[in-house]
Amino acid sequence: MEERPEIFLYVGDSFIKFKLEMPSNNGMITNLDDHPVSVRVSEGNEERESESTMNWNQQMSLGEWIQHFRLLPNDPMSLHVQFYVGNIKFDIQSLRNTFPNLRRIGVTCLKEGLDESDILNAQNVLRAFLSDVQHLVLHCVPLQENLSLQHIGMTNLKELWVYYQKNLNFVDVAAWNAETCVITKTEDQMSIRDLNRFFKLWIEGSNPRLKEFSTYFGAEAIPDWNVLLKGLKSIEIEAEEEEGYEERKFTIQNNRGISAVLRVYYEQEMASVFFTLSN
Question: Which of 51, 89, 256, 270 is a good FRET partner for 207, with 20 to 30 A between their CA atoms?
Fold first, then answer.
């Protein structure tokens, strides 16, 4: 049997997982109006997970059943919905009908051999919620020029988390409007020079809404932080170093007199850079 599609709904610190058996389409859910044959429901949190099998009500679609189960709280900010591209053919209207006023979403695509349908499904999820969403997580999401990462970043998001997106340039990030931005890259995707340019653009006035920024990346050795700090007029305020480990803190200031703390960190072949406004 094909691997069953799964849908996760996160409410506060808890989650509910739907593992679905579909009657046809090789296990593919055509959209949220489809009627699964059966569903295995799990609920729990980080510490535990309990599971039970339930017979599906054939008179209810997936979207209607989610609504019936009352998973949607009155406060839209307490609900986070994670969409996995490749298992569901998302259409914009059924998404909006099922999840009105959604503020927190994640989109993940770990499927190999993406096709145009996968790209369209990812775009449909984003188009359905981008006007209202405030917290967005993207994980290897296929995007095109008509809805690029640059378009997404320029919306007024409170938080934007980006994992392993191809062709992501820190200079482009300087035009984003998110208040908090988290970026994870592989070692071969990382450019310290681009990151230096990003902070120079912040000093010149870019990213006026930015409050927190962090990036994580693999590194076989401690990066040359002098490349990162070149031209930033930084002042070192703290340093700690031992074999295979380093942590340093600096202050920088932009042309509007706004100060921020830069923290660089390295341990066990992983490096990170943190930016936080200090006033």
Answer: 270
Task: Please give the distance of CA 276 from its chain centroid, rounded to a whole number.
Answer: 19
Tell me how crowded residue 19 is: count the other CB atoms within 10 A of its CB. 17
Burial class (CB within 10 angstroms; exposed 0-12, middle 13-18, buried 19+) of 261? middle
**CB count in 10 Å sphere of residue 256:** 9
Residue that the structure tokens 């709904």 belong to: 9
Over residues 251-264, the pLDDT tens digits come to: 999 999 999 999 99
CA distances from 268 to 218, 221, 239 (A): 9, 9, 18
- The neighbour count for residue 57, using CB atoms within 10 Å, is 12
pLDDT digit string, tens, across residues 126-163: 999 999 999 999 999 888 888 889 999 999 899 999 99
Are the CB atoms for 231 and 196 separated by under 8 Å? yes
Question: CA–CA distance from 28 to each of 22, 140, 147, 149, 232 (Å)?
Answer: 7, 20, 25, 27, 51
